Amino acid sequence: MDVAHAAGVSQATVSLVLSGKAAGRISETTAAEVRRCARELGYRPNAAARALRSGSASAVGLVVSDVTHPFFGRTLRGAQRAAWEAGHVVVLIDDAYGAAWGDGSVEALRDGAIDGFLFFAATPPASLQAPGSPPVVVVEARTERFPHVVLDVDAGTDQVLDHLEALGHRKIGYYRSAIAGETFDRRLARWTARLHALDVDPGAVAVGAGRFTAVEAIAGAHDLLDRLGDTTAVICDDDVLASGLSTAARERGIDVPGRLSIVGFDDLDLALYASPPLTTVKAVPEDLGAAAFEVLLARIQSDERPENRTIPVELVVRGSTGPAPDLARG
Amino acid sequence: MDVAHAAGVSQATVSLVLSGKAAGRISETTAAEVRRCARELGYRPNAAARALRSGSASAVGLVVSDVTHPFFGRTLRGAQRAAWEAGHVVVLIDDAYGAAWGDGSVEALRDGAIDGFLFFAATPPASLQAPGSPPVVVVEARTERFPHVVLDVDAGTDQVLDHLEALGHRKIGYYRSAIAGETFDRRLARWTARLHALDVDPGAVAVGAGRFTAVEAIAGAHDLLDRLGDTTAVICDDDVLASGLSTAARERGIDVPGRLSIVGFDDLDLALYASPPLTTVKAVPEDLGAAAFEVLLARIQSDERPENRTIPVELVVRGSTGPAPDLARG
DNA sequence: ATCGGTACGTCATACGTATGACCGTAGTAC
DNA sequence: GTACTACGGTCATACGTATGACGTACCGAT
Question: Between A76, A243, A272, which is nearest B94 by CB?
Answer without folding.
Answer: A76
